[in-house]
Amino acid sequence: MSLPRHHLELLAPARTAEIAREAILHGADAVYIGGPAFGARHNASNEVRDIAELVRFAHRFHAQVFVTLNTILHDDELEPARAQIGQLHDAGVDALIIQDMGLLELDLPPIALHASTQCDIRTPDKAAFLAHSGFSQLVLARELSLKEIAATRAAVPADVALEYFVHGALCVAFSGQCNISHAHTGRSANRGDCSQACRLPYTLKDASGGVVAFEKHLLSMKDNDQSANLAALVEAGVRSFKIEGRYKDMAYVKNITGHYRQLIDTVLESRPDLARASSGSTQLLFTPDAEKSFNREHTDYFATGRKDDIGAFDSPSYVGTRLGTVQRLLPDGFEMDSDAPLANGDGLNYQHKREVLGLQANITKSLGGNRWKIQPNQAMSELTGLVAGSEIHRNRDHAWEQALTKPSAKRLISTDLRFEETSEGFRLCLQDEDGVQAEAKLFTAKQPAQHPERFESGLREQLGKLGNTIFVAGQIDITCSQAWYLPASQLNALRRDGIAALELARLAAHPRPQRVAESVPPVPYPDTSLSFLANVYNQRARQFYTRHGVSLIAAAYEAHEESGEVSLMITKHCLRFSFNLCPKQAKGVQGVQGQVRAEPMTLVSGNETFHLRFDCKPCEMHVTGKMKKHILRSPQPGAIPIQFVNKPA
Length: 649
What we know:
By secondary structure, the chain is an alpha/beta fold. An eight-stranded parallel barrel has the order 1-2-3-4-5-6-7-12, surrounded by five helices. It has a seven-stranded antiparallel β-sheet with strand order 8-28-31-30-29-9-10.
């Protein structure tokens, strides 16, 4: 079973179970979190017992918990991975997000499987293959346009859900197609340990050695933000809207989850044919603002077509919102103009040459109008390059962040209550917004009420006190032959018993998805050969692809069998396009003589040099290079070396 086609799912990230619980309270229909091992965020793991507690919390709202097990695995890791999957299934986890096809060849419990974005799902053919191979949800490549998403939707079965990243950091490479980190540091992005070479400064040179750009963060992307495209994404066929950020802190997850909860609720208001994927309504106790959380400026990337401003070339840091400019330097601080109020503890920054420099406002003082005095928590002599006219940005709004350290959301499930008398006393029947029912009974002798005129109003008031639970009272019906005397203690106990019974009933009624069956006979893979970019790193994965008609299978890059120069990164981001050197841009432009060719270029960072090759038909750039010799000679990552048949020379 997968996400029903008429349900919209807001999927939030969680570094810890505590953050996951807050994500659910702030409106997430599902959360994804790392397990003890094998997740693609090396430092975001969680114990199974903590995930089990999270599952129980989430299932009360019929929200789901997905666990990331999306690294490529060695042969010696398959059995530990299988054992971990069994534990996660027993803990009640709803689905696994995986990359390694070798897992599909193991004897697994019937847990739902989602195809990770690391599977590089860019084409309808690839999506259809995975949909017929046992996956109930597909995480599409971030680079897909609305038109390409719609084509993918048309190619896969109706009961397979499409998931799409709507917010957060962007990897410049197609996910699963980047090996720069392993080539130069031995840290594999496919194994959750990326060194983030894309955030470094580079110098770009043309074929003749001329400098096109000097010391810019040329492979660093702005952050993804699809806030304006949600309705269009729904129309294209997306049903799960994913926020990136398993390394992000609590405040980020609260803010961005709340932001998209409000936006998706607006879409649902205009689409009565669609429904929220989990239960309850979310009340935010703050106003979400995506600009106040870490970002490198925002872009919708390729969703609505290629743009020339997707790069965060100046800095990979969070600059924040512009406040104003420095007006005057003082011995103990500076004066600046700002229409926005400032607070002690605010994080400020300014740019000096090509570097963003930060400072903390120790004391802020309004001087009237829009003029402020700032006393930083360091000596003015240490603020290199700060001068009158420097632009000041704020990347930490202390007062706003403090508000998010407190309870900042409520999530409540509407519940109708019916109180009625029985031959042995009284009964409280409850039915929530999902139709889940429960009841509690009070066995007591009946006594007429001393103040019958207050019986019904008092009873309604007492039964409606659900403030410390996840429920809010809807309709309250009372069916009694006369007014009875009921002590408050008895009513409170009856209400508590009823709520406890309803919570248990909700857990029992949670629609836990099951793994979908693979098509029989197995559908053929779209290609008959696979390069190292297919990330086949164990014999079970090789067995999977062989069973699906692939005859030539190269080993993953981590197997250290690629000694020559290869594509270490494949990206839709093209530096020729960014610097107006694209042949397609030049074609037909007045004043351009002859044919402009996409000649190779070079990227240089310190002692590292990469060659750029341009594939203009699909508008892709390949960053090529070699694995460092000491890494090539080192053991393959993992305890037991694996052997593959090399592709023919």
